[in-house]
């Protein structure tokens, strides 16, 4: 038996849960990109805005950790959204070299429009799944995330 007979991955590699999760995420992200584009937004902009909305006052480093991206990627996105008037930096009350991130009124308006787009994508998915499967899938995804965090 040669190494070529064994192959670089198991025969069931494309049937794994992790692959199905990745395929679903890629499909959702592609649809978000397509539907947010008319608003002049990318899915990454939406993710950043909604995270800052949920946790106002985050620093760039904290935001990078929560979004699982590099600090450089966050800095670039923050600069872009700040230039658009959707995000502002404010000095941290106790640490003069740290800046907190906050949505502006324009940022909240943009997030409201973008969230309506994302909610429609959610509706499309949940309508196809039905209420029982939606509830079950959500619970299973939380369990999968917990299982990974426990390792």
Automatic annotation (TrEMBL):
Signal peptide: none annotated. PANTHER family: HTH-TYPE TRANSCRIPTIONAL REPRESSOR YETL (PTHR33164:SF43), TRANSCRIPTIONAL REGULATOR, MARR FAMILY (PTHR33164). Coiled coil: none annotated. It holds the Pfam family MarR_2. PROSITE patterns: HTH_MARR_2 (PS50995). This is MarR family winged helix-turn-helix transcriptional regulator. Residues 14-146 form the HTH marR-type domain.
């Amino acid at each position: 038996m040669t190494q070529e007979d064994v192959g670089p991955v198991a025969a069931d590699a494309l049937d794994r849960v992790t692959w199905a999760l990745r395929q679903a995420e890629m499909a959702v992200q592609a649809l978000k990109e397509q539907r947010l584009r008319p608003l002049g937004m990318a899915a990454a902009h939406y993710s950043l805005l909604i995270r800052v909305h949920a946790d106002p006052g985050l620093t760039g480093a904290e935001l990078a950790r929560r979004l699982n991206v590099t600090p450089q990627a966050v800095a670039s996105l923050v600069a872009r959204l700040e230039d658009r008037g959707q995000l502002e930096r404010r000095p941290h009350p106790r640490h003069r070299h740290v800046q907190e991130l906050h949505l502006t009124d324009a940022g909240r308006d943009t997030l409201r429009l973008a969230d309506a787009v994302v909610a429609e994508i959610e509706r499309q998915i949940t309508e196809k799944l039905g209420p029982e499967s939606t509830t079950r899938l959500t619970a299973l995804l939380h369990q999968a995330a917990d299982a990974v965090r426990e390792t």
